[in-house]
Amino acid sequence: MAPESGKTYKIRNLQVPEKVVDLSGADQRSVIGWNDKGGGQEAHNQAWRLFRQNSGNWTIESLKAPGTFIGIASGPGDGVHLIGQGVPLEWQIIPNREAFAGEGFDSEREANAFRLLIPGMYFNADLADHGNAHTIQLWGKWRGQNQAWTFEEFRG
């Protein structure tokens, strides 16, 4: 499902579908990949409001901690962790089909997933260690499914 501005979503990893983007309950700052908690109040740290900006890019705000947006811990680069921050960071959200135009995909699911990129750069949100870790970091764009995400409307 393509995101719509103003709606709230769970952002699910394509390679490890049981992991969703989560604002850590331990420190309310780390943005991690964590097992899906389902719905209800206990899942609010896994729910994100997306807002389309005039630039065409998006901001991603926590439902649990309004005013906390997905950002990065330092300047863009491989291995830079995603964090919750008070200043909105714009993200380019593009379909895999567009990110890898002209290339074939193993499945329709993969073709219809999305990339979360730093605008104008090739760094995108990456579930670290090929999906085997909880860390979500920036990494240079490649075909790995640990860098592909789906959006599911949150009903909690």
Automatic annotation (TrEMBL):
This is Carbohydrate-binding module family 13 protein. InterPro entries: Ricin_B-like_lectins. It comes from Coniophora puteana (strain RWD-64-598). The lineage of its organism: Eukaryota, Fungi, Dikarya, Basidiomycota, Agaricomycotina.
